[in-house]
Amino acid sequence: MLRRRCLAALTVLGLCMMAFACARGDSPSVEVPAPAADLTPSTQPSQPQTLVVGGGCFWCSEAVFEHVKGVTEVISGYSGGTKETATYEQVSAGGTGHAEAIQITYDPSQVTYGRLLQVFFSTFDPTTKDYQGPDHGHQYRTVIFYQTPEQKQVAEAYIKQLDAAHVFAKPIVTTLEPFKAFYPAETYHQDYVKHHRRDPYVVQNSLPELQKLKQHFPKLYREP
């Protein structure tokens, strides 16, 4: 796995050149419409909600949602497998059932579930199966872990809406999987982009996604 190699040896020029050659930041930027259906906004802002999604590397996804107004916390981690296999080494090797995912805690009085899904689909390529940019494997699948029947219904309808409108050149391959548990990743993965903005992987893959957020959602963008 390329990102794992670059993390272990960022000074090796050959590996860094490979990361530049197939950057996920090169994916086309498209205008993604808002969902036609959404969850009813909460009238109780004291009750935060959570959304767990996977869109390839959790470094990239975490950085995007940390800049969204109404989001109060984003944690990188693993979902889809068991607690015993929820480690970076095991997940990176494949076969655990886990996806690299992020847990988003948000205030539904400020930003809705549907709006967060719109951001999700706007900042990466949801048409590539089991990979994003230089990261390949089932652990990099695009996935929404729904926690209620209502969340599933909204996400399912939204995917059908985007496919029907041919927003992307190819069909969306994002899967909807029932949420079972979320396991936070190791400490060194948290806020990775914030602390490593000159990392070649971050420059080529994470920062372009932040630019997409700022471009498409200027009123929603904030500095954390």
Q: How does this model look, in words?
A:
By secondary structure, this protein is of the alpha+beta class. The chain has a single domain (2-216), classed as 2-Layer Sandwich (Peptide Methionine Sulfoxide Reductase, Chain A). It has eight helices and eight strands, in the order ααβαβαβαβββαββαα. Strands 7-6-1-3-2-8 form a six-stranded mixed β-sheet, covered by helices on one side. Helix 1 runs antiparallel to helix 2. The longest helix is centred in the C-terminal third of the chain and has 17 residues, at 200-216. The protein is globular, with a radius of gyration of 16 Å. The model is unreliable at 5-22 (pLDDT under 50).
Summarize the structure.
The chain is an alpha+beta fold and 224 residues long.
Main CATH class:
Alpha Beta
* Strand/helix succession: HHEHEHEHEEEHEEHH
In the CATH classification, which architecture applies?
A: 2-Layer Sandwich
Strand content: 15-25%
Query: How would you describe the shape?
Result: globular
**For the residues shown, what is the average pLDDT?**
88
Main sheet characteristics: 6 strands, mixed
* Total number of beta strands: 8
Rg over C-alpha atoms, rounded to the nearest angstrom: 16 Å
N- to C-terminal separation?
30 Å
Task: Please bin the fraction of helical residues.
Answer: 25-40%
Strand order of the largest sheet: 7-6-1-3-2-8
CATH topology: Peptide Methionine Sulfoxide Reductase, Chain A
Number of domains: 1
Question: Which segments are poorly predicted (pLDDT under 50) over 5 or more consecutive residues?
Answer: 5-22
CATH superfamily: Peptide methionine sulphoxide reductase MsrA
